[in-house]
Structure formats: structure tokens, C-alpha cells
Fold:
Amino acid sequence: MKTHTVTVGNLKIGGGHPVSVQTMCNTDTLDIEASVAQCKRVAAAGAQLIRLTTQAPPQVRAFARIKDTLSQQGIHVPLAADVHFSADTAMEVARVADKVRINPGNFSRDPSQATALLGTLIEACNQYHTALRIGVNHGSLPAHILEQYGDTPDGMCRAAMEYLTICRDLRFTNVVVSIKSSNTRVMVQANRLLVERMKEAGMTYPIHLGVTESGSGRQGRLKSAAGIITLLKEGIGDTFRVSLTEPPEQEIHFGKLFLPLLSRQHAVAVAVAAADSAPTVAAKASTPAPTTPGATSAASAATAATPSSITAATSAEATEATPAASVCIDTSATPSSDEEVLWNQLIVSACYEWAPGLLDGTIDWKTLPMPFVEASFATKEELIDFCMDLLQATRCVFTKPEYISCPGCGRTKFDLEETVRAVKEATAHLKGCTIAIMGCIVNGPGEMADAQYGYVGEGNGKITLYKGKTPVMRGIPQEEAVQHLLELIESEQQSPGNGAP
Ligand code: SF4
Structure:
């Protein structure tokens, strides 16, 4: 999609400029020393834009000091302020930030005031040469949109278009837009729809891509890569954030692997260069052979791997796989043979080849031979497990628990990464169950999407457990919360009339 250029400090987004990779600090913004140190680490890793939580005036002052400190040390990576629930804070931080992100779902609770408040914010942005991001999230749509259109791709687009229309009417062009969801299919559909709607309206705002609350580890990477790469491959997206419940440096290291794929020519060139190098990571690209009796197919692997409680949530009805050229990643360019790097490269390569067809249903996953990717560093069993994870990330079939966890930010009041690890360990046997682990009670419950169970930080070492959107246990000491979560899920499973989740 052709977009215009937005200027964010020394970064140009859209207008044909290279796609940029960004991240967000998970430090307390008031902890200036820790925030500066983390900004320096992610800048060294290659972050081109860094976002910081900015809740209120004290965080605005801290934001300014972080920016000054970095600048004095010769670090000029643009900084964005992430603002929720406070239009006043957005206006104040617009004086010091390179970019302000607002969420139409909570910028103004009263839609009738949104136009006036956004107008005032735009005045400040104009005055201080600050960019804006209209950042819509699937889990926090404005009430009037939810009532009329539900939490659908259409509703998400309408929420974005309402704010973009105000920007256009005020002739403010320094705006980037994003529409995120933790559901990869919803995220892809919503962004395609947004492109259509913007084209109809003659708008060319650059698009920021991301899959929210995608989690950690391989599952989190696969979800982010599937959604983002599918759209980048179509020419949609000018900047992106891989959102992981891990140190933000990891988001940058992983996100940078997407960039070579943006140029088909480049990808082919690397494939040739890598041809003689070992080990090779490749997503098998030929049209998959029809499954023959006795051969392992994705469907039979899923059946073998899953109890009867697992439902295939696929909408993949088409029967023809899409042939595509092979994309190999030059592993010789990697300084070490670190297995994690190789797996990350396989994720990117496999998503480039397979995610679009799996997400759209133009590839019938049930007919795929298993494994349908190749990598010389992995065993057949490991690759089959990888393929099942890819099928889950693209929402074809669910053979493991599905985890939704936020990346954490300045609002997080507990060790999110460690908690996610503990929850995963305790619930690994709960196949097909969707569990959310969210860092704060302010945004967490809304952003849990369609999770069946939620573990949400209240602050002060206390946790609230949710069943769906309903809080069922409040004020649980953090050290007991994982066990309570497990008991809650298991008691639900054993309740008469309750199938496994
Ligand atoms: S849910 Fe809360 S803690 Fe997690 S990223 Fe969002 S605002 Fe930060």
C-alpha cells in the first residue's frame, strides 16, 4: 500500500522508507536509571523506535529526563509515549515525546468529547512536531463501537477510521495507525480491511503492525511472525513491533530477521548464497504431495497428538496448497550455530512460506505431509512438533494450551516472564485450554481477548483470577496464584456437564 511519510524524530515511517523495527520498554518509567539502561540495550540491538509507558504527569517528567539522558549520551533513537485513559497526559507528553500513542478505546470515554480532545492533542503535536499513533486494540474497542459492530475486524476498522477522519479533517498528516489482535486471523483480516477503507477514503497513513499478547518462546514468535509477515508480504505495513513476554531486546533480534524477506530479490539471492552452507533452514515450498495411506499427515499428527477435547477451529476449506518459491536463510551469516537462532530463522522462513495460506485457508492443512518444513539441525519429531505449533499459531488446529500474555510494560508490578514460565509449566497438560497472563489490572482484563482463564496482576503482590471476563478470585498472594489457577481450571474440567476446556 502506498503511504505518505511520517516523521518521528530522526525516523521516517512510510512513504517508501524502509520498514522499521520497534519495541517497548518493560521498565517502570519512573525508574529513570533502569529505563535509560534498557533503552540503550534495545538501541544497541537495533531498535529504531522505543516506546515507554506514560500514565500520568510524573511519568511525563521521567520521560523527559530519560530522553535528555539518552541524548546527552549520543543516543538519538526516537521515543514514543504510550498513553491510556488520560487525554491530559497525552497532551502534556506531546511536548517532549517524538510520538504519542493513544488508544481510541480509552482516549475519551465520552465519544462526544473525542473530537475536541483529539483536536487539542493535534494542536500540541503540530506545535512540537510530534507524531501520533492511533493504536486500536481488539480487546479495548470503544463502547459505542462494540455495541454497534462487536469486536470484529469491521468494528476495529471503524474505531480507527473515526480518529483518522478527525486527523484528516484537521489536516494533520503525521499519524501512523495500528490495529492489533492476539488472534492472528483477526489481525490479518482487520489490517486488510483497514487498507481498503483508507483507500476508499483517499487516506495514505502508514501502518504499524503487531500481534498483541502473543506470549513468549516459540508460540509467541510464531504468532507474531505469522501475522506480521503475511501482511508485509502483501505490501501492507511500514513499521512493526514483535510483542513478546521477554526482554525487549529479544523482540528486536527476532524482528530484524523479517527484514531480508521484504525483498524477494534479496531472499532469492540469499537462498543461492546459502545453498552450500550447512546447516540450512528452509521452509519446504513445493506443492505438498497428497497424503498417501500410511504417510503422516498434519491431520493425523493432530489426531495422534490431541485428545478428543481438542477442536479443530479451522476455516480452511480450500483444498489446493499454494506453490511458492523456496526461501532459505543464510545461516552462515550467523556468527554461532546457536540452536535458538536457527529455530528463529526457521520460524521466519516457515511463516513466509506457509502462514498466508494457512491463515487464509487456501492451504488445506489436513493434507499436508508431516513435517512440512525442513531443517538439517532438527529431528523429524522436532519438526513435526514445530509444524503443529505453526498450525496452532495460524489457528488451524489447537494441540497444546494456548497462552495469551502481554509483553509487560511500566504498569507491570510482578515478574511477568517468570510467572509465564511457571503457568506454562503447571498447565502444559491442559491441551486446548486458552490461558491469559496479564501484567496489570488496568488494561489486562480487556486485552485478554477470548481467553478461558486469566491470571491478572493487581499490584502489591496480589493476583486476580478470571474465568472468561469474570473475576472469580481476587487478592490472591502471587506465590499461591499459579496453584489456584490450576485448581480452578481442573475443577471446571471435572464439573458435571463440563467437557474439557
Ligand atoms: S496489560 Fe498492562 S502490564 Fe501488560 S502490556 Fe498492557 S498495560 Fe502493560
